Amino acid sequence: MDEYSEPDTTATEREFRVVVVGAGLAGLAAAVKLERAGVTDFVVLEKSDRVGGTWRDNTYPGCGVDIPAPLYSFSFNPNPAWEHNFAGQPEILAYIEDTVEKFGLARYLRMKTELVEAAWSDERRRWILDTGQGVYVAQYVIFAAGPITEPSIPAIEGIDEFEGEVFHSARWNHDVDLTGKKVAVVGTGASAVQFVPEIQPDVEQLILFQRTASWVVPRMNIAFPSSVRSGFRKAPVTQRGLRSVTDTILRSLSAVMRHERAARMLNPIGHAWLALQVRDPKLRADLTPDFTLGCKRLLLSNDYLPALTRPNVELIPHALAGVEKRHVIGADGTRREADVIIFGTGFDVSHPPIARRIRGRDGTILAQRWAVSPEAYLATTAPQIPNAFVMLGPNILVYNSFLGLAEAQLDYVTDALARCEKDGVEVFEVREEPFRTFNDKLQKSLAHTVFNNGGCSSYYLDAQGRNFTAWPWSTGSLRRRLSHFDIDNYRTESYRTDSTQAH
After folding, report:
1. pLDDT tens-digit readout, 111-138
2. What predicted TM-score, i.e. pTM, was given to this entire model?
3. Engineered SS bond to 88: which of 64, 310, 364, 407, CB 3.0-4.6 Å?
């Protein structure tokens, strides 16, 4: 692989047409899409010394994607070498690094360059990005840091006095040998479903704190034998066909989730899978959700539920309420001795960390504007944040590949840059009226979806019950709306002349 470019710390400012923040999947897709659109005056800032984002940081046992790999990959770089339908973290990270090398992206990367603050300057009509490696100036910024970057750890009384090891699944401590240990796992979400079956055979006892039961459905993890992989290489159309079929299936699932009554018809699948894998009626009752399938994130696993039936596993169907030295205490008062506590409690997606580092036109930090709930226009732009795009922003969730959605957003981004250049526009900012109209209509349309009306409390909803996560319409409609930049919904400023005017 080419050597990464190191920042020139002797210069006071480095100016580019575009700065991309984050070298995860979305940031690297931005680099390829920009270059293909003829934009080469850009850099990608990355706080770490390695690309990959969430696939670099999450290294827990069993970590993998829950979207089929042929779809969870760049459209411009299909990978015929996937060994299974669902790829694991090491394979995905290797694919990301291969993409950097294959497309020569290293020349755009500025590693170990963490964004401290990006502030819009009305005077200069540019973004001023303060980093640990100097100042960058950009006409446009693509914030591609992603919503799942900082682990969420609940406040637990006494946790600081715990005498054993404590870590979050997203910061897995590989120096801790779990063999023969009493391990308490807090949380039963997507990460826990993957690592619990991996560690269960090694530990002496596994105590699993489950605040709320979730639906688990089969993970169709089909192996791709060498003959199939060879076919993908020799006839790429076959893999494109598989990608298209997978996309159609997921789009159909998203259509079902838009109507709670339709989603309710899927409940028997969850019940049947649970009955097949858990024979004990008491344990099965504790693992049975009381809401419609799809209201919370679907969990895909073939071995999680069987792991919970093993003699060395105890399910406590309550939250972890407190810790006392070597003991963990459930909300029901249950006390158990533990050597290690592992939090599988996900991420605080309602407060994207990047928002704390964006200061808009009026001087307000975006996180303050989003303090109650994040809002954006087409999940991509926001008032008071001119010439900037947020990748995988609020209300973009559908049951599909986030990578495909990011690529759709990047079509919007590159079209915006081309349109502004063609029309002589130097600054654009979404107008308040279309922004508010869009979000009001979005919230109204979400009311009948399974996410809002399925009888659960999930991370899709903020503290007031407002859904800041899901897209209520079809995946196709999202892609269509992002296929072109609707400049009429933006306030624009032409390049300065003797008679500069804002429109």
Report:
1. 999 999 999 999 999 999 999 899 999 9
2. 0.94
3. 64
